[in-house]
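COURSE: Structural Biology Practicum
ASSIGNMENT: Worksheet 4, Part C
STUDENT ID: 0417
INSTRUCTIONS: Below are two proteins. For each, the amino acid sequence is given first, followed by its structure token string. Answer the questions at the end about the second protein only.

PROTEIN I
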Amino acid sequence: MEPVDDPTVTSAYRVLENHPDYRVLRRLVPRDDFGATPRGPVAVGIVVDTETTGTDLRNDRIVELALLRFEYCSASGEAIRTGVEQVAKLLKIGHVLGHAPRALSNGQKQRTALARALVGDPDFLYFDEPFTALDAALRKRMQDLVVSTVSNSGKGGLFITHDLHEALRICHRIAVLDRHGQGILDCVTVPETPGNRSEEMIFETARRLISDHPLFAVVDEHDERRLA
């Protein structure tokens, strides 16, 4: 692809271009506009990306494999970005499409991360403590956004957290894992539905579970973030 306006990336590009072990097969010109209306049958493509521990094929191993599904017009070869536009509109980040990550606020970065998860139209979403680095106000806004987005899309999800209040705000059921890796200790169904629980209800339910339920007394006692 063409060098971008970044000295580090451009320098790396030039090194590869001039290295005898590499050759440029084709130059891809960056595009900001994608055809929304295909002129021919819609085809599906997959972009495969890998992360390895090094460049020695004999000794290094693949540590991450990413597959990105996309649609394109089979007549013109143009990518169809309708899914991206729909998700961006849903999460209110259409105005930052094409911006560099460093130009985004923390909230926009979190919305963009959620958009990346949704754009592939998965049946199930997995969240691994995504909001721990956010301040309280932004964390609550993102929790509400997750609830509304997942509910409106009709998808299911698994949300990992050490914050009982967060679990009560987001989840239908709470499963507590054994801290020694012995599986699930127990599950508790949360009254009402996510998005319809008041702050008073969440606070009171958390207080009751910690004070009355032996399982959650252990959770409060062994909060890893407080013990760190």
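PROTEIN II
(use this one for the questions)
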Amino acid sequence: MAGLIKHLLQNDFVRFLVVGGSVTTFHYVMLVVMVQIFFVRPWIATSVFMFVGALLTFTFNAYWSFKTTNKKIKRLSRHAIVSAIAWVLNLLFMLLLNEKLGWNYMLVQIMASIVIVFMTYFASKFYTYAELET
């Protein structure tokens, strides 16, 4: 079993999912806390934690998922662009489906997360953490 886990963790997509899954779990817990306990509107709460998540995912993906060691500032600016696109997508999901149509905010967040995970993986692999010219 340990050999299987070690083998799986050699794949950057699996490492990306571990990082993203951990950050997403934190995001969901904080989203529920903000909405249910502090009565913050879901689109505001999720926007705040998308920003926090962007900082966390950059750090963990740079050092572990894609194992980059150079040009962190350029990669951070690329990550900021990808994160901004993900934030807009997430916000659109929440505003349209939760605010306008009244769907459950957690269902909407799960749907948005499914779309965003694939968009951000491919953007991260082929743009943010791609080999950079010197």
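ANSWER KEY EXCERPT:
Q1: Residues 15 and 64 are 7 Å apart (CA to CA).
Q2: The chain has one domain: 2-128.
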